């Protein structure tokens, strides 16, 4: 059994900066989840990892690099106890990429509609969620997205990158 996730890795120095904040907000998952913007949430692909690899490679060839800008905070409360940094540039590129990836071997029924974001606090006390929301309300970062990553969930609960896929359409 392989539980995977597909995401855009937030680059340094932003990745460490946001991870430090996430830990400070009391999120116990801060140490085990790389700072990312999800394209496919945790998914059990059984023994079909090779099929998933081929699918992701084909998808990457159909999409061009783009700029992503993160700014400010938002929340999924009261539906879900999550505070996140908002994606304000690159939203349509993320949506198109996620839609393409979520076909073929990764097609499934998802619990929530797709919404690009970078989680900074999840399953913590309401006061910590409020603090996270306020603390990073003026957060602003911009970076080039040139690839996305396949992560595997380890038996120890840590998400580790398995492979990167370069966006190469028009390059």
Concise structural overview:
The protein is built from four helices and eight strands; from the N terminus they run βαβαββαβαβββ. It is an alpha+beta fold.
Could you describe the 3D structure shown?
With 171 residues, the chain is an alpha+beta fold. The chain has one domain (3-166): Cyclic phosphodiesterase (Cyclic Phosphodiesterase, Chain: A, Alpha-Beta Complex), CATH 3.90.1140. Helix content is 26%, strand content 36%. It has a four-stranded antiparallel β-sheet with strand order 2-1-7-8. A four-stranded antiparallel β-sheet has the order 5-4-3-6, sandwiched between helices. Strand 3 (66-75) and strand 4 (82-89) form a beta hairpin. The longest helix has 13 residues, at 49-61.
Note the topology:
Layout: E1 3-9, H1 14-24, E2 36-44, H2 49-61, E3 66-75, E4 82-89, H3 91-101, E5 117-122, H4 126-135, E6 140-145, E7 147-153, E8 159-166
Distance between the termini: 35 Å
Q: What is the count of β-strands?
A: 8
- Give the helix tally: 4
The major sheet is characterized as: 4 strands, antiparallel
CATH superfamily: Cyclic phosphodiesterase
| Count of the domains | 1
Return the string of H and E elements.
Answer: EHEHEEHEHEEE
Strand content: 35-45%
Class derived from helix and strand content: alpha+beta
Arithmetic mean pLDDT: 96
As for the CATH topology, it is: Cyclic Phosphodiesterase, Chain: A
CA-based shape: globular
Helix residue percentage:
25-40%
CATH architectural group: Alpha-Beta Complex
CATH class: Alpha Beta
Radius of gyration, Cα only, in angstroms? Answer: 16 Å
Low-confidence stretches: none
How are strands sequenced across the largest beta sheet? Answer: 2-1-7-8
């Amino acid at each position: 059994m392989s539980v995977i996730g597909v995401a855009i890795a937030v680059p340094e120095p932003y990745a460490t900066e946001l991870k430090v904040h996430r830990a400070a907000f009391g999120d116990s998952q801060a140490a085990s989840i790389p700072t990312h913007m999800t394209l496919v949430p945790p998914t059990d692909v059984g023994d079909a990892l090779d099929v998933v690899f081929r699918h992701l490679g084909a998808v990457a060839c159909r999409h061009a690099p783009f700029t992503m800008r993160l700014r400010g905070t938002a929340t999924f409360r009261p539906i879900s106890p999550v505070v996140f940094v908002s994606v304000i540039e690159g939203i349509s590129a993320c949506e198109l990429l996620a839609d393409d990836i979520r076909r073929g071997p990764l097609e499934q029924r998802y619990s929530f509609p797709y919404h690009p974001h970078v989680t900074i606090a999840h399953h913590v006390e309401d006061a910590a969620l409020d603090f996270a929301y306020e603390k990073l309300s003026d957060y602003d970062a911009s970076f080039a997205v040139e690839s996305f990553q396949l992560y595997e969930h380890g038996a120890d609960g840590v998400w580790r990158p398995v492979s990167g896929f370069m966006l190469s359409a028009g390059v």
